[in-house]
Prior knowledge:
The chain is mostly beta strands. 7% of the residues lie in helices and 31% in strands. The chain contains 3 helices and 20 strands. The protein has helices at residues 30-41, 142-146, 173-181, and strands spanning 6-8, 18-28, 53-65, 69-70, 73-78, 83-93, 99-102, 150-154, 204-207, 211-215, 219-221, 227-229, 240-242, 269-273, 277-278, 283-291, 301-308, 329-334, 338-343, 356-361. It has a 7-stranded antiparallel sheet with strand order 1-18-17-5-14-8-11, with no helix packed on it. A 5-stranded antiparallel sheet has the order 2-3-16-6-7. Strands 4-15 form a two-stranded antiparallel sheet. A hairpin with a 5-residue loop joins strand 6 and strand 7. The longest helix has 12 residues, at 30-41. The protein is globular and about 80 Å long. Mean pLDDT is 88; it is low at 1-16.
Amino acid sequence: MLLSGFILAPVFQAAADNVAMVETMKFLAPETVNMLVQRAQSGGSGGLQVGDTIRYIIRYKPASNGGNTGANGYITDYIPAGLQVTGAAFVQPDGFGGYFDIPPVPAGDMSNDAVCNGVRNCVSATPTLPSTPLNNGNIATLAQFYADTGIWYSTDLRTALIPGTVPPTPRNAWDQIQLANCPKNAVPWGTCSPVAGPDTFYQNEIAAGGLAGPAGPWHRIAYPGSRIGNYGLMGDLQASRILQPGDPHYGRDLSANPLPVSTAATPVTVRWANGLNSVGETKYVSITARIVSLPPGGAIINESEVWGGDVYYWEGGKDFPWKYNKTLVSIGNNSSLTVLKTPSIQSAAAGDVVSFQVTVLNTGALP
């Protein structure tokens, strides 16, 4: 049985005003803990088993790096080999020990005029013009860029975790390419989104030399409340619309069509874009997966990371989010160790003898 806690990587913060994010914990959801407790207490084979459906939760917090409210933030989970993702969500505690699904919030206000890229507190000189590639000189706008929220997945080999990579270096090859080649302000229209792909408003990845490349590897997962960018006016501070079922960009319905099993040949990576971030909040996302196979030793170990973009318009937001990828915070972990202590009686009086049953749970195949 492998027992593993969390390895917190140091926070590498660029000298800038943004809202970074700090990943604080990954842990098994209460229903998964209950399943393991019942299995451990039944006297049979304990631990996780092939065929189990498990859920784990990633907890993270927006953190001030000179700002209080961020335009958007990104959470990435590298799915271990042998797991098949059947659900992904934004969640929050219900106050009774459980968690329930919630929609992502819209992205924070940002300028929708390319002239304002890199300029604090910029006001468009042509506020009633449509914010199209033609009117923006084929340059991306901040409002359109940050607009997409929701959940995506990739099976591209470039988005697989590079073992041993430590922040501030991006931890997959695709992110490294985007960071190296996306211009600071004159981003080509329709490119460079951290979730670039066919179901994102800015669909194209960036290629070497800062040129527009093909559609990116990220495919949207169907999720209520998700938003996709749109044109709007150059004077707007929001440039998105909510996605509805039936929309061609609504995404893959995991309840009917789970993701492929993660393998070395088809490594699955899931990425969330959570919208507006406010310092002081605690946020949560979750993954539900079926165990198709267990690795040698039986322990499920996976890695995840978080990073935040620039502050929103009302705090002087002016930069695209790749500038802040070096504030990436990662945790190398399995799911958090759970220790349960159960008394033999619920109410004790003086002189009573009370014993305690201690149950230790983790993601190993043994109890």
